[in-house]
Every structure is written in C-alpha cells, then in structure tokens.
Specification:
Layout (H helix, E strand, L loop, with lengths): L32 E2 L9 E8 L10 E3 L2 E5 L4 E5 L5 E5 L8 E11 L5 E8 L5 E7 L3 E8 L2 E10 L11 E8 L2 E6 L2 E7 L7 E7 L6 E13 L2
Parallel strand pairs: 1-11
Antiparallel strand pairs: 2-16, 3-4, 4-5, 5-16, 6-15, 7-12, 7-16, 8-9, 8-15, 9-10, 10-11, 12-13, 13-14
Length: 228
C-alpha cells in the first residue's frame, strides 16, 4: 500500500495511516446547519463496472497498528483499533474522469464524530475529495490538494445520515468536470464546484474521532457513465 509524504500536522483529524506524523484537517468551528432543500435529480448512463468485493487484487488491503482492511463475503471491512486511527482502501483501476458512482456503507461499531465514506478522484500524488458521514448524523466534503487540506462543504446535519450503528446508507457522487453532486440514499445533499482534481480512482475510509474502536463495511459498488 502506497502511503503519502509526511506533512506538518495541525490539531484534530488524521487523513492517512501513519507515517508517524500525518497531515490533518483544519478544525471547523462554526455550528453545523441543516441540509438545504434544493433537489438535483440523478441522471446517469450505462454501467461502466461493478464490484462485489470478491477480488483481493482490486483493493489495497492489510493491517497496521491503527487497524485492518480486509475482504469478507462480498464486502470490504475497515476496522480501527487505535485511538484516533485512520485507514483507507483504494480500488486498483485506471483513473476515472467523469462518472457516477454509488456504494453501500454499513457501520457496525460507530459513535459520535467517527467518520466513514468515499474518496473520489484519488490521484497518484494523493490529491482527492472525501465524502464523509459522521456517526452523529452529519455529512461534509473535504479536499486534499498539493499538501493542503480544506472543506469545500463544511459539516451539516442531514436526515439521511443515520446516527450510530448498526446502519446502512447508500452513498453516491455524480462527477463531471469541476462539478460534483453528492447524494445519500438517492437524496441530494449538496454540490461543489472545484477544478483542482480532474481524475483519479475511488476509495473508502474510516476514522475514529476518539479512543473507541470503529468498524465499517462497504459493499455493492457500481460506477456508471454520466449524462450531461
């Protein structure tokens, strides 16, 4: 598993597994707000590929002091044992540019501000967008680009994000050029416009916000062409 270069940390969240010093997301201090009621209907074309998580060669797997990433029966499981641990897994395919992707995320051990979700346009230089759900009912989008972390969409509460665990949500992202639309259970959440990262692969992640363990299962990935 390739790991990124070490960056200078700021308080709070870990972006990738150790190196001993990891880049972290700047603290977001403003109060979260409710998800807007704007709706953008899903539109997409032919199926490009699907993944039932049965091929170990398609994902980065392994174990370190923070936890483990492994395939089970048609699912990928990320388990965090280390306080404030972070793990991710990247699908080993050619880079995608414009696409619509959806995946089921099922936390089985999860609480408070623990996070899980999708990595989008994860590039060889480890630039990416990150679509996160928290275990207290919030969602957001972060960006990691050229060594700098930011949040194009800060935390907001959403009625589509189930608090706690066990639960299952269908996460989806529609990506075309610099426009990204985000959905949970086919319900539109928000959009961002950002030209920074034009292509990359898909990944999944889990992060512990405190000392307690976190376990999240991912299944049923489908990727489609986009319609404009």
């Amino acid at each position: 598993t390739r790991e990124p270069a070490t960056h200078t940390p700021t308080p709070t969240e870990i972006w990738f597994p150790p190196p001993p010093t990891s880049t972290v997301l700047p603290t977001h201090t403003s109060a979260p707000v409710l998800t807007p009621t704007v709706t953008i209907e899903l539109q997409y074309g032919a199926l490009l590929f699907e993944d039932d998580f049965s091929d170990p060669n398609m994902w980065t797997l392994g174990r370190n002091p923070a936890g483990s990433t492994a395939l089970g029966k048609n699912e990928l499981t990320i388990a965090i044992q280390e306080p404030r641990g972070y793990r991710y897994s990247q699908r080993q395919v050619a880079e995608l540019t414009d696409f619509y992707a959806e995946i089921s995320a099922s936390p089985s051990i999860c609480r408070s501000e623990d996070e899980y979700g999708m990595l989008i346009r994860l590039s060889p230089s480890f630039d990416f967008y990150r679509f996160s759900l928290t275990c207290n009912g919030q969602t957001r989008v972060d960006k990691y680009y050229k060594g700098t972390a930011s949040s194009p969409q800060p935390l907001i509460y959403s009625s589509e994000v189930p608090p706690g665990a066990p639960s299952t949500s269908r996460l989806a992202v529609w990506v075309s050029g610099k426009v990204l639309h985000f959905y949970i259970n086919q319900v539109y959440q928000f959009s961002i416009r950002d030209p920074s990262i034009s292509a990359g692969t898909i990944g999944v992640f889990a992060r512990a916000s405190g000392d307690d363990p976190v376990t999240v299962n991912y299944s049923d990935l489908k990727v489609y062409q986009v319609t404009k």
